[in-house]
Known about the structure:
Layout: E1 2-5, E2 25-30, E3 34-39, E4 43-49, E5 62-63, E6 66-67, H1 70-81, E7 92-97, H2 102-113, E8 120-125, H3 126-134, E9 142-147, E10 152-158, E11 161-168, H4 181-198, H5 203-207, E12 212-215, H6 222-231, E13 236-238, H7 245-251, H8 254-259, H9 261-264
Parallel strand pairs: 2-7, 7-8, 9-12, 12-13
Antiparallel strand pairs: 1-8, 2-3, 3-4, 5-6, 9-10, 10-11
Amino acid sequence: MTGARRPYAVPGRHRPWPLCRHCCGIALDMGSARTRVLIAGRGVVVDAPTVTFPGVDAVHPIQRGTIIDTPGCARMLRRLLADRLSRHVHPVVIVTAPVLDGLAYRTQARAAVDVLRPRAVLTVPGARGIALASGADLTRPLLVVDVGAHLTEVVLLSDGAVTDARRTALGTSDLDDTTTPGDIAAAVARMLTAMLQQDHTSLTAAALRRDILLAGGGALRPDIRHQLSTLLPARLHTVPAPHTAAVRGATTLLRAAHAHPSTTGN
């Protein structure tokens, strides 16, 4: 998890979560198709299309897991959250991020989240959020497959950190007469095979001795689950409520983030 110091530090002694009246905690998952927001203590409060303007003229500020319109993301967040947050509150915000978009995504996401006047903004790989939501043992190597609407990721975690990752610009929104669930499963199998072949450690092989975690909207589709279970060399474990797993996992980090010196201003 990475973070950035913000100018909205709360003066004086910072009270433990959730007693602090100056701020709240927000977990934010901005996907290419849908944006999900969870406010600490209130559960998932937003699950809406990722569009700047709703309706027939909808503009999509995130495409294939990449933010292409930062101001548009900011306008979307204002529209979705302005009436849910007091203007006196400066939240700690944790944003889930695609594993391979790196610094560019984190920088753009923080710029968009500034519209919420946060006290601190931190980012966490979506795959780690999924693992946390599942309650998986992060001390052992773990494989996560995240099948989204526009993007599919295969991520290897070791001690909770990303060790290797692959992705393809293919997801459930691409399914039609020519692109099938089998195509998505085959892409996942190819990525996993490449990870095994290029891994000079034993981490990938060790992870395959455990269940592979499956999440994302694609995990809700029996046809995709079936194709994956047929092609992958390990059992699949579908995370409960897989479409919201990343944002729910991110909330488990909010308590620690709230008290961290980088967010308290003390």
